[in-house]
Specification:
By secondary structure, the chain is mainly β. About 0% of the residues lie in helices and about 35% in strands. The chain has a single domain, classed as Immunoglobulin-like (Sandwich), CATH 2.60.40. The protein has strands at about 35-45, 50-60, 70-75, 85-90, 120-130, 145-150, 155-160, 160-165.
């Protein structure tokens, strides 16, 4: 009698001839999940009254499939008053190819085309901007970025940044 657990070397036809070949099915339920955290690393007032602000962006693939076509969008105009002159001082990453044309005031994607994030991988971006003429009473600003990407099956994934350095601060795998 054949075993019902799939361990019968005869296969499924019961002919006592183990010459059948069949593959073992594997089903993967794709679950694309990406997280983004943004934190202020340094604020430095310069002699001319302008301020250099350095931000760190941390990305993490928390899903079970690679995420392709990454974008990290940061629209700086939304965070600062119209009087502020915003200029990018530096945009760097050891993990991603950055877009040198990023300015946060029209070209809002920090990453060049073709970036991806493999399953379980993390990466970081550092951005330093200079703010000039924001006004004497302007001392607190709030800014949020968004990460977007595409799973291999074409599913879009996105996550607005959490404040801090951990894209999944509660550790539940869902940013």
């Amino acid at each position: 009698m054949p075993l019902l657990d799939g361990s019968d070397p005869d296969g499924t036809d019961g002919d006592n001839n183990p010459d059948e070949e069949s593959g073992t099915p594997v089903s993967i339920d794709p679950n694309p999940v990406i997280g983004l955290a943004k934190r202020t690393v340094q604020v430095q007032t310069l002699p001319n009254g302008s301020v250099d602000v350095t931000f760190e962006f941390n990305l993490e693939n928390l899903g079970n499939v690679n995420i392709n076509d990454l974008e990290v969008i940061d629209d700086l105009v939304l965070a600062f008053p119209a009087t502020c002159v915003i200029s990018v001082q530096s945009l760097t990453s050891d993990d991603f190819i950055v877009d040198p044309a990023f300015n946060g005031t029209g070209n809002n994607n920090m990453l060049a085309a073709g970036n991806d994030l493999p399953v379980g991988d993390k990466g970081a971006i550092l951005l330093t901007i200079n703010l000039l003429n924001c006004g004497p009473n302007q001392i607190m600003f709030t800014n949020q970025a968004t990460v977007n990407g595409t799973a291999p099956d074409g599913t879009s994934v996105s996550d607005p940044s959490d404040n801090g350095s951990d894209p999944d601060p509660d550790g539940d795998g869902n940013p």
